[in-house]
Design goal:
This protein has 157 residues and is an all-alpha fold. It has eight helices and no strands.
């Protein structure tokens, strides 16, 4: 009985130590402060500050698909579509199934009056979404496309 108690105590101690090691590991890799500042600027709808911070972030880590996507989004909100397109394309080279990139790239195409290309992004999302083509990004882009079509057909949304 004492050996069973010792084994249980040992297992609990190992589990505790492993949990602490994982917590330290996740804290050791903190997020890039320029990404954090960029995300905060996006939340405040300060797209110029977001561009400044996120440009620095992608210079430091050009393979960060999330930072590339947030930078592209910021440029799109400022109406700088060529820069926006460039960074969405970079994000897709890093991760071809990046759902946020696909959604926002589709919205950029709508801003550029290219609904056919937006539909292509919707189809790419359908393949990238894990639940039979259903995910928030798919739903959001579908809704944006429907609004675009209603607005441009003269019928109510």
């Amino acid at each position: 009985m004492k050996s069973l108690s010792a084994v249980i105590t040992l297992i609990c101690a190992l589990a505790f130590l492993q949990a602490r090691a994982f917590a330290a590991l996740s804290n050791a890799k903190s997020e890039n402060p320029n990404v954090v500042a960029g995300r905060n600027a996006l939340e405040a709808k300060d797209f110029k500050s977001a561009v400044r911070n996120l440009n620095q972030a992608v210079r430091e880590n050009p393979n960060d698909a999330d930072a590339q996507t947030m930078l592209a989004y910021s440029y799109r909100k400022l109406g700088v579509f060529d820069e926006s397109m460039e960074h969405y394309q970079k994000a897709l080279k890093i991760d071809a199934n990046h759902r946020s990139t696909r959604e926002y790239l589709g919205e950029l195409y709508l801003d550029m009056n290219q609904p056919g290309n937006a539909e292509k992004q919707l189809q790419a999302l359908k393949k990238a979404c894990p639940f039979f083509g259903k995910c928030a990004e798919y739903d959001d882009l579908k809704e944006a496309i429907d609004r675009y079509k209603a607005k441009n057909s003269g019928s109510p949304a």
